[in-house]
Amino acid sequence: MESRRPARLLLVLLSWITFLLLLYHIPMPAVQSRLDSHLRDAQKFGKILEKARTDALKSRGYSAAPTRARIRNEFTARNNGMLAHEWQVNIAEALHLGLDCSLIAGTGAGKTMPFVMPLFADPDKVVIVISPLNALEVDQASRFRKMGLSAVAVNGDTYSPDIHKEIEQSKHRVIITSPDMCLQHDKFRQLLSAPAFAKQVAAFVIDEAHCISQWGDNFRPEYSQLGTLRAFVPLHVPFLFASATLPPLVLAEVRKSLHFSTDTSYHVNLGNDRPNIAWFVQHMNGAKSDLDALNFIVPPHDSEDVDIPIEQSMVFIDDINLGMEALEHVRDLLPPRMRGAVALYHSRRSKRSKRIIMEKFRAGEIKILLTTEAAGMGCDLSHIQLVVQFMVPDSLSIWMQRAGRAGRNFFIAARAVLLVQPSVFKEVKSKNPNPADEVTFQKSVEDALRTWIETEECRRDVADNYFDNGIIRISPTGTCCDNCLRKLNPDHALLGGRSMTTSSTDSPSPPSQYRREQHLKGARDLLTGWRADKCATIYRRRPWGPKALMPDEILTKIAMRAHLKSTPDLIGAGWGPTHAARHGEEVLSMLADFDAKYRRARADEIRRRAEAKKAATAQRKQLAKEQKAIERAEKLKNRAAAPKKPRKSRAKANSTPTPVLQPSASNFQPPSTPFHAHSVLPYTTPFPSFSPSLPEYFPEPSQLLHSIIHPPPTPFTPTPITPNPFVHMHGMPPIHHSRLRFETPTPNTAGTPIQTGLPPVRWEHVAPTSFYGPLPPAFIPGHPSRIPLTPLSSNTQDNSQPSGHFNFPIDYDTLFQ
Prior knowledge:
With 817 residues, the protein is an alpha/beta fold. It has four domains: 207 residues, 3-Layer(aba) Sandwich (Rossmann fold), CATH 3.40.50; 202 residues, P-loop containing nucleotide triphosphate hydrolases (Rossmann fold); 101 residues, HRDC domain (DNA polymerase, domain 1, Orthogonal Bundle); 128 residues, no CATH class. Helix content is 38%, strand content 9%. The strands form three sheets. It has a seven-stranded parallel β-sheet with strand order 3-4-2-5-6-1-7. Helix 19 runs antiparallel to helix 23. The chain is elongated, with a radius of gyration of 51 Å. About 21% of the residues have low confidence.
């Protein structure tokens, strides 16, 4: 029952993921396809394992539960309390049952442990591990010995008669060797094929199985012959091959080479995604000559006497001579006292030199290790923070293998940087170009790697599709990749001192530098058509579509921003450097031509509208002129037809001019603050006064004062006043004003008596009434008998006023006596 539980849990988990994808209608056709494939594989291989258990139960009374428990307990005891993963126990049990197994898991996932876990179920057996590199063999032997297993590395450097004898006597349970030793070393091959020894073999394990495809043709043809090892052992001895990089086509090739049957083998695919590695692509300015592309590895510093912090880094350079030049260049970037922290590791070094360099690098004394493939696979270096590939490798699998050296410790935030030379993007011009022909580049690159480099989307998605990774992917622990980071912050400097963008977009441009409305729509349509044309011609064989070439969001930004004038500007707007470097000039030229045509069309439209407006204005003026002429002629005609009235003499008999007292500029004061209920009536400069001989002008006294303090809803309209020939005794003719105002007088000398008979005061309030008249001395500021004006009650009906009020009508003669 326990043995069936993991498979059921996996099926339930995958079923729930399928349900959620369907429930929320997630448009992920590639993910859905992989999901269906993995569901079918899980069911298929789960049935194969269950059938092997049933057959073993019938043939020898096998019980899965105690076997799996023994494997788990041994694993925990030999690994300081660490618990085994369910998939590790499944593979160990499958090997114990005689099933061929294949395993795909990322670096650091623990895929090495199942190599020896069958020995936990049957400790008298021997496991033979085929490894591609001597350094890896020694490293793995050391790790297995730490687990309490007797392990030995057998290769051209370590083989001896003593080791041969120890293997014959079964003193070693784990033998780690190479294809060369198994197939070309006569004595060792005879030992492996001896019937007595063959009976002890629990399993053959081929580590880094992708080398069968990568090296089997030319570099190391022995890898393509590993399938002949089956002739050395009985048919029931299983084989296990493992790798982090086995895309479907390579997986099929390896299965064929090792004579695997998918109907009788057990397969586990965990995918090779590394959530703690951030992926970057950096464009180089040259090829081998651009060693400055490595400058970002060393932080900038001012002092030559201070140690600077450097990440534990591994730089892959495929040319040994170029590696020596890079070694000198990187050392020159460091302070003199730190130049020993850089070393070069390659196959031509002596065994002792390799061992010393690797020990110092593992201990942290060497910070930057420049290396070829010699140190590229399998070495247990858990502290590497940065992996750099100088110029593109031959395939995406090789790049993933090398990048996988970083971040083996899951708690390290690591980076993997691919430096791409310009020749990868330079096209070879054909003498007879044909749009239907595939574009040829100066540097030939595997299609999968080129797709990974050129994509504008998440680089993890491209890798998942290519390697057929499982859909259960852990979210990145930090930065995902440069494309994802660029979408979050287009101006972010991706690599230390070498920014992938420019500062041309740091400050916002004025609105006039943006395309809007019809201008923007035309630019978007132009870019959309260009994008579709490129995907139908140049990129027609790529697995991605137009939106990968230029995402809609980036297309809109480029279409809107008319101030983008260079390729770095396009990169700053968010377009990936790969496509921007290749198509940037073409896009900018196309948009410049479009802008010029749009401006010309716009200018023509403005000129046409201006001319039409000018013509309409001239026509309107002409019509108005003609209408005025008609009206003038009609008026003259009517005037000529009307009877003429006799003219009257303007002179009056016995008329005398009315003297008017004009105020002087020296005694005139501007208006002061508005009147309110408790104001004191001041005196004012000379103003004309209404004659008291016209009492019909004045309203009832109570109504006048009440309207001053409480304006009525309906404005009071005073009786129109006409000039009166009667001249007041003060010589001031009656004049009508529409407002009533107090005016502040010019300050008088304190204590100076003010004479009676001074000029009248002008009152003002919001009510449209006015009144002019002289004031008695009692109302003049400073006078001891001045009387404040208080409002009348709204219900006052009679003309009797309280003491101290100004009563109407005013008897001027009485006031000035």
